[in-house]
Design brief:
431 residues, mainly alpha, Tetracycline Repressor, domain 2, 2 domains
């Protein structure tokens, strides 16, 4: 005799109508969180994406925090489970390090870019969530990091990974390069497979030819990336104060959270007085976003034009890496704000800032192309994917490197971080 299913709505292993509706809500929320950010979400907006009445959503979830919790859990749980399977299978079959790395890279990118919006929603939103929400999901994120740590540690112990760099920054370097692809890779035009292959080769072997000596230029602590501001009037100071506050708000809480009230509270000025300096919130945010990339552009451009201190192509690349990270952590709070929330910007805002971002990308393309033409960089690497993966590894540092703890016990300094990334990007992680 065939037993009846426990749920009367469920037949032949198929999900019930209630379960299907619940999944539809979660998928709609993941899509919204991924594209516009958690702070911009409301139950009404999620219901609209799910094509259902706003009131009926409460039958399935009590709040958007409740929905977020499941989206974040599913986004990383599925990735964690598949990566665990890849590692278990590799150990059982005795696979080589490079093959296992390629499979892990492909697994991570597949879930991030094509499997669903859940993983990308997790990656994009986690850094700007309130600490109490992040705290609930740290154990699973730590478990996924531990998978990579154990894998890389074993590889280092058996001589497959270079032993002059601690595993934690190596792991952050790898995951950073992969995570940033969600901001630029077009899966509607390209499959994940070629990206996985190119990313794996770059991570393993770096960009420089193996017959070239890697000379990592020492940091010059007296070198300023940006020229000091000459205008020191009270109005100019207040204006800068407002812009700095806006940068902190969008960096820490997201673009949609940067209201005039939030900016004025962060700046410590009356909300009404902001209009003496800026005509609208959009004007403030546009200036913050524009300044962020222009600071990077001007800083790197100035560095690579210094042929006296950086006479060859590889030293110029190393110095440009140095300058990029200096901008993120010391010289420009606008740069880190821009990079952290760009993926959550409305399309019309992105369009306004695309020209200067393209200008910065083209600067790096010239730097890398010159090095490839001179024979310093490998000829089998395409410049644009190389630049995207490289900048991804650099940009993702804003999500894990704590400048306030730089050099403290158990934490690397900014100088050490820069040297590590120079070595890994130029020379790769293979021993």
């Amino acid at each position: 005799m065939t037993s009846k299913p426990e749920n009367p709505e469920q037949h032949d292993g198929q999900p019930s109508k209630s379960e299907q509706t619940r999944e539809t809500i979660l998928e709609a929320a993941a899509q919204f969180f991924c594209n516009e950010g958690y702070s911009a979400a409301t139950m009404r907006k999620i219901a609209k994406v799910a094509n259902m009445e706003a009131g009926s959503i409460y039958y399935y979830f009590s709040s958007k925090e409740d929905i977020l919790g499941e989206v974040l859990e599913l986004g990383l749980r599925r990735l964690y489970d598949e990566a665990s399977r890849v590692l278990a299978d590799a150990e059982a079959q005795g696979k080589e390090f490079a093959q296992v790395l390629a499979e892990l890279v492909d697994t991570h990118l597949t879930f991030l870019l094509t499997e669903s919006d859940f993983t990308s929603a997790n990656i994009r939103n986690f850094p700007t969530l309130p600490d109490d929400l992040r705290q609930r999901h740290r154990p699973l994120r730590r478990a996924y990091s531990d998978l990579w740590n154990d894998f890389l540690t074993k590889a280092q112990q058996n001589g497959s990974v270079r032993d002059d760099i601690a595993i934690r920054p190596v792991r952050q370097f790898v995951l950073g390069a992969l995570n940033w692809t969600v901001e630029w890779y077009d899966t509607e035009r390209f499959s994940v497979a070629p990206l996985s292959e190119r990313a794996t080769r770059l991570l393993l072997d770096g960009m420089a030819k193996k017959d070239h000596t890697l000379v990592v230029s020492p940091r010059r602590d007296d070198r300023q990336v940006l020229e000091p501001q000459g205008d020191v009037t009270k109005a100019a100071r207040t204006r800068k104060q407002v812009l700095s506050a806006a940068a902190r708000v969008i960096r820490d809480r997201g673009y949609k959270a940067a209201t005039m009230r939030a900016i004025s509270a962060e700046a410590g000025v009356e909300a009404g007085s902001i209009y003496y300096h800026f005509g609208s919130k959009d004007e403030i945010l546009d200036e913050v976003l524009d300044s962020g990339i222009r600071d990077l552009l001007e800083g790197v451009e100035k560095t690579v034009s210094d042929r006296e201190n950086f006479p060859d192509d590889l030293s110029r690349i190393a110095a440009a890496i140095d300058t990029h990270l200096e901008c993120l952590f010391q010289a420009s709070e606008f740069a880190s704000a821009n990079l952290r929330i760009y993926g959550q910007l409305p399309q019309e805002v992105r369009a306004r800032h695309r020209p200067v971002r393209n200008e910065y990308a083209q600067l790096w393309d010239r730097i890398l192309k010159d090095a490839q033409d001179s024979g310093s960089l490998r000829s089998d690497i395409r410049i644009v994917p190389l630049r995207q993966v490289m900048l991804g590894a650099l940009n993702w540092t804003v999500e894990w490197f704590d400048q306030e703890k730089s050099g403290q016990k158990g934490n690397i300094s900014l100088a050490e971080l820069i040297e590590i990334l120079q070595k890994l990007l130029l020379g790769g992680l293979s021993k």
